[in-house]
Amino acid sequence: MAFVAFQSAVSAENSIEWSGGALVVIDQRVLPREFVRLRLTTVDEVIDAIKTLAIRGAPAIGVAGGFAVALAAFAHDGDPDKIGLEAQRIAAARPTAVNLVWGVRRALARVPDGPQAVLAEALQMLAEDGQLNRVAATHAADLIERLCPGRPLRVLTHCNTGRLATAAFGTALGALRVLHARGLIDSVLVDETRPLLQGARLTAWELAEAGIPHRLTIDSAAAWAMATGQVDCVIVGADRVAADGSVANKIGTYALAVAAARHDIPFVVVAPESTRDPATPTGREIVVEERGAAEVTHVGDRAMAPEGIAVFNPAFDVTPPELVTAVVTENGFVEPKGVVEQEITDISHALYARGWMPGTAGNISVRTGETAVITGSGLSKGELTEHDMVTVKIADSQPVSGKRRPSAETAIHTAIYRATNAEAVVHVHPPHATAQSIDAREALRFSGYELIKGLGAAETIDIPVFDNHSDVARIGTDIERHLTENPTAAPVLIIAGHGITAWGATLAQARDRAECLEGICELVTLTGRREVGRNLTT
């Protein structure tokens, strides 16, 4: 089938476009000496461009992967098996950046609808990328302005995260554009980014093009620049973000994060949501690409090392989540490290002081994307610290990080997250609600109490009561089934003779709802009545 010519609605700043049946890209291998556009018309040409770094940057290769599937769809129209095999080759071109697989899968899903549908999907990805980058960059600029207020900033960046690494505008470099437009950039310190010098060749070129003040430095000087007070913030991109928040990015990123942590400097990651990989639990499972020895031993055609020397040349490294201040996407940012843990700690201490979490009882969690942070098992909540938390997968309750064992009641928390939009869950053992539930069957009905409004009802509310037994996973299954079948159910429940579980959009709201239910139960204890008239409400 002949190609149908499309002209994508892109601006001059785009690094990728579709024109006349071909993928047209800026050849990043020859910048800044030359500005050359490549016209790619076959799957092999796109794969070669990705492998040889003519196209590079996680968002850019994701979009390019989508167009490569479109080329395969036109070349093998009516043969989905061949298209599928081509898609596998495309996705394997570079293993570390998850965006490539994301782009291939998204385009591949349209194959049953024909080549034009696949191309339309790739064009949609192209259009979305620039829009999403601008949103993410603005979120990142807002965060950095909050973290480093009141002064023009000296920012260090690594590798290239601008329009060359994306379809348009850029991620981390996009945030620098936004900050510069606000008059908040004093200067940008650009790591050269060995061995292929993406910082020196590409980022410096883009910053000069944008008129942003900058200096180039060798990678090994970055830590000293931080130590001597020349850096206010470090901002980088990402090729993959694991479920636990580990960040795979250009080699050298981990060292920057270590140095930034040592000098108490914010370390901010900016990437599209497509870079998140919830299927990879931790950074340990990320496959790090190793590239050829010549990238290290040669500069151009000139040998700089003894012939035949053994070389270690990883293209990426993985930064653990505890060294990352925040990961920012178009959806905003995960709170800076320690904020969630500290909030859980503070509320745990307060509820312990009230007698609602006696001994080691009770647990609290906060959703963090596809995972949740939950209090560790067997700990007094009065002595809890931010280091006593465990991160678990919401899908199956399995721990992904943390030194403690997760709470024994983790399955209850994850069941609620799977069945609702809750962002936080509080499980406590206050005396009145616990006592009221001892002989309850299925539900407790309360009517007429003003505090019912705090649970989202007007006059009457039914609080489900679940049987308590040793198989916590079974309790979780019962709760998930109930919430799935009753999507408008109250955001609180009771486990018979055990305590309250409440949830909400924030941890404070979840706590407040638990307080409202306990307050109602205390009034019932005092009045002996679960239903009262209006003139007797609190």
TrEMBL record:
Pathway: Amino-acid biosynthesis; L-methionine biosynthesis via salvage pathway; L-methionine from S-methyl-5-thio-alpha-D-ribose 1-phosphate: step 1/6. Pfam families: Aldolase_II (PF00596), IF-2B (PF01008). Keywords: Amino-acid biosynthesis, Isomerase, Lyase, Metal-binding, Methionine biosynthesis, Zinc. The record marks C159 as: Transition state stabilizer. Gene3D superfamilies: Class II aldolase/adducin N-terminal domain (3.40.225.10), translation initiation factor eif-2b, domain 1 (1.20.120.420), Translation initiation factor eif-2b, domain 2 (3.40.50.10470). Residues 342-525 form the Class II aldolase/adducin N-terminal domain. Catalyzes the interconversion of methylthioribose-1-phosphate (MTR-1-P) into methylthioribulose-1-phosphate (MTRu-1-P). This is Methylthioribose-1-phosphate isomerase. It comes from Mycobacterium intermedium.
